[in-house]
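Researcher: Next entry in the queue.
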Amino acid sequence: MERSFEELVAEADAVSVAGWDFSWLEGRATEQRPSWGYQRRLGERLARASAALDIQTGGGEVLAGAGAFPRVMAATESWPPNVARATALLHPLGAVVVADEDEPPLPFGDAAFDLVTSRHPVTVWWDEIARVLRPGGTYFSQQVGPSSVFELVEYFLGPQPEEVRRARHPDRARRDAEAAGLDVVEVREESLRTEFFDIGAVVYFLRKVVWMVPGFTVDRYRDRLRELDALIRREGAFVAYTTRFLIEARKPGA
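Model: Structure for this entry, 254 residues:
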């Protein structure tokens, strides 16, 4: 029996959105993955490192699945539910999780790490990354690119200015990395298809990825959600496109 709009929305509005695990969306939404395999390549770099830092680790799920950690492994996270989740997941694997407000400075000394990583950081403080890297050290990151899922964003917020659409562009990341004194050795970008198969998936996604539609609540957008529910039932899915880019930069030196 087909579930009602109210049932789907109530379920998605009540479920926990702690951590950075999207398994709740299995069968309800799909997102094409970048071809480069970030987690596998992260594991290759961790295997060669002696001291590594993962910034904005979320619930620690991506780092935990990347493979064996180096002798020194640290991670930072700002959101308290994620700090608790990452601590429970990463401490048994040998990583220390540090609660950090995602504002400079990073709570580590100069030249503390030969590898700094981050998957989908909200902000990137390039000068701080350069500071905590040892000479010859590497920053390796997969980031959300410009206009990601903007079909969904603009469904709720309306057309966005061009400067907003072009925010988080890989060209800017390259410039900022170089301005911080790092040598960029690789940048790759891909556009990827995302599909939402029911309105509950949309509600869950917007509750979890809070910067997409700031201030999103079911009550605030109930009418618009009801219209989107009708569209999904009619067409089978709501389709949007994400962009992802991979960037690797190295600190000059040994």
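Model: The CA atoms of residues 5 and 230 lie 9 Å apart.
Researcher: Noted, moving on.
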